[in-house]
Amino acid sequence: MAAARAGVQPVETLDVWYEANTPAGHGPELHSALRAVATAVKAIAARTARAGLEGLYGAAGTTGGGGDSQKKLDVVANDIMVAQLSACPAVGVAASEEEEAPLALGSGRYAVVFDPLDGSRNIDVAIPTGTIWGIYERPAGASPEAAVLQAGSKLVAAGYGLYSSATMLVLSTGSGVAGLTLDSLLGEWVVTHRSIKIPDRGQIYSLNDARRWEWPDGLRRYIDTIQRGEGEHPKQYSARYVCSLVADVHRTLLTGGWAGNPRPHLRLVYEGNPLAMLLEQAGGSGSDGKRRVLSIAPSALHQRLPLFLGSARDIAELESYGDVQQGAKTYEL
């Protein structure tokens, strides 16, 4: 093979990355499912970028599967994901945060769970949003619901799309975490972060400080301690909070620390499990404040939980305070 010319590097695309990261026992079928998700993320990115031009800001006037009010782009993003997955023979079941029940798509080997547009309340002010997804192998004879109500430890692949200054696809097939950036000139996903490793401790925490007065004592003591620089890490922590889970997790994955919500607000199936897989594959942790997220067997499609994702030592220190889970409550904003 001829040597690469000076200054010219080969482009590592999603297809090339998958060839080197194919999990044992899987192959072209999983590749096909991943490509369907990746194509959907491209399409959602395009519609998100044009939301103001296409009249896609604002409420849709409908509610999603979990009972939340939908934005127009929630509906659009969900339709895009369902359309792409329906066209993929490898996908037999699709389950969305925006749907009441899983969709039976055929006899395909895989079940895909997803939050089509996380952080959609931020769309109207052009703050980063994302798509969260996970892929399970469908057990033989399993109903569509049983296919997606599996513990996160059984995920075959997981990832998220990030819609920001760059469009990224961050994913894992069980052997580490990679980040790919959408090259608009090539129309291809290109590997830009070959092996993402979260620092074992950071200096940033991410949650809504405005709810401090309702936090449990353990969480309040923990935050007070790390803000003063009196925790296990001798430096003072700072808060960074976008209120878009994908954006907050992406920063955390690259710089360390943790992001989360102490209320039982985030969905185990559609958000908690896929993101916890990514954090663990990058060397971090995913916890509900007491338990490893990936060990929790879901009992309902829209089951919610407190969620803390981040550096392993930071999450362990947080858990050591014991009382860090806030009771359920819905806020106006």
From TrEMBL:
The keyword Hydrolase appears for this protein: yes
Membership in a protein family: Belongs to the FBPase class 1 family.
Annotated signal peptide: none
Transmembrane segments: none
GO biological process: fructose 1,6-bisphosphate metabolic process; fructose 6-phosphate metabolic process; fructose metabolic process; gluconeogenesis; sucrose biosynthetic process
Matches recorded under InterPro entries: FBPase_C_dom, FBPase_class-1, FBPase_N, FBPtase
GO CC field: cytosol
This protein's UniProt keywords: Carbohydrate metabolism, Hydrolase
Broad EC category: hydrolase
CDD domains referenced in this protein's UniProt entry, alphabetically: FBPase
Listed name of the protein: fructose-bisphosphatase
Reactions catalysed, as given in the entry: beta-D-fructose 1,6-bisphosphate + H2O = beta-D-fructose 6-phosphate + phosphate
Natural source organism: Raphidocelis subcapitata
Keyword set includes Hydrolase: yes
One example GO MF annotation: fructose 1,6-bisphosphate 1-phosphatase activity
Taxonomic superkingdom: Eukaryota
Domain Fructose-1-6-bisphosphatase class I N-terminal: 29-193
The Fructose-1-6-bisphosphatase class 1 C-terminal domain, residue ranges: 198-321
E.C. numbers: 3.1.3.11
